[in-house]
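User: tokens in, sequence out, please.
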């Protein structure tokens, strides 16, 4: 099999010949692998099976326009992202930032309607097909990455407590904001799908460490229908596109809903929150998985042999037809030993079905 054939067959649960590797490194670990392994581009160095296609470009989009929405001014040196969300830095937090919400002081629907949401409809996207085609020529999987898709983008703007209150009270502000974010997400997703990406990656954290973030009733009222519309749209453009969905935490009650919404691959099945073997037993004939190797436990605190054992046990549970793109469940933070990263890679490359 080629890399593309192996990857697609693995996630479609029709068999595979080898186990691909993938992980995300924090800036500190990127520097370490560059210095200690000579890995200028760690995705190339470790032969990742996929690469990301760039989002729609927004030339001339001035993020400074969003400062006026903060009644309490942003801290000096804060970054403002494309949506206007502020990210304040701390010298003691390395790459982590404190999030500020540009719409948290909005009082009514009119305030939200006046907000200058990013105009992806008039952005530049010619590069997307060029990048997707180039990746395919290299036998790589082309990915459109749209994690933080509806729920998270909306609460990043409004503030989680405010948005929950709006939803619970059936406020028109919640309807407007979630619809607006969906509208923009559909523009971005359509652009990726029409560019020919193999994978589109959606996601919104809807779980916490030991419980779901909201009731199923609230999820099915506000989020599931919008996600379903988004998935239906991209699959109408390309029925073969693989739709990944990310949510950290315990989300087992939501898995049937995600399957019904059309999700093909669920990430990350956080091992500290859910038992992958049980999740795979219940749902593995209807959905595939990406992740499962704990970044709170075995990756930072286990031995290399324990890392290998976790990888092999989960691959065994998935079975010979595949259905598991095994990987660390989240970005690898500074406390993860380099030896454990190499052990994960070795475990994937040495696995025998």
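Assistant: Sequence out:
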């Amino acid at each position: 099999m080629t890399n593309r054939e192996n990857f697609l067959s693995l996630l479609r649960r029709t068999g595979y010949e080898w186990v691909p590797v993938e992980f995300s490194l924090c800036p500190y670990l990127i520097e370490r692998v560059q210095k200690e392994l000579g890995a200028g581009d760690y995705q190339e160095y470790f032969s990742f099976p996929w690469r990301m296609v760039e989002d729609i470009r927004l030339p001339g989009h001035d993020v400074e326009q969003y400062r006026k929405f903060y009644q309490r001014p942003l801290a000096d040196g804060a970054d403002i992202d494309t949506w206007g969300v502020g990210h304040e830095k701390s010298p003691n937090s390395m790459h982590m930032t404190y999030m500020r919400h540009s719409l948290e002081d909005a009082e009514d629907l009119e305030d939200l309607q006046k907000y200058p949401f990013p105009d992806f409809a008039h952005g530049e996207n010619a590069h997307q097909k060029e990048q997707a085609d180039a990746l395919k020529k290299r036998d790589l999987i082309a990915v459109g990455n749209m994690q933080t898709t509806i729920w998270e983008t909306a609460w990043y703007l409004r503030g989680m407590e405010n948005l929950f209150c709006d939803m619970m009270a059936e406020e028109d502000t919640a309807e407007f904001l979630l619809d607006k974010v969906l509208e923009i997400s559909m523009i971005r997703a359509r652009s990726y799908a029409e560019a020919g990406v193999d994978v589109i990656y959606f996601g919104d954290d809807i779980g916490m460490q030991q419980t779901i973030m909201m009731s199923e009733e609230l999820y099915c009222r506000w989020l599931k229908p919008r996600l379903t519309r988004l998935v239906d749209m991209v699959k109408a453009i390309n029925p073969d596109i693989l739709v990944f969905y990310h949510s950290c935490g315990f989300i087992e009650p939501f898995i049937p809903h995600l399957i019904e919404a059309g999700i093909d691959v669920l990430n990350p099945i956080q091992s500290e929150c859910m038992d992958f073997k049980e999740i795979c037993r219940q749902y593995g004939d209807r959905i595939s998985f990406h992740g499962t190797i704990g970044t709170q436990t075995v990756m930072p605190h286990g031995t290399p042999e324990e890392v290998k054992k976790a990888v092999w046990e989960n691959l065994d549970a998935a079975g010979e037809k595949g259905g598991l793109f095994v990987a660390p469940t989240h970005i690898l933070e500074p406390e993860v030993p380099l030896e454990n990263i190499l052990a994960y890679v070795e475990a994937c490359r040495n696995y025998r079905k």
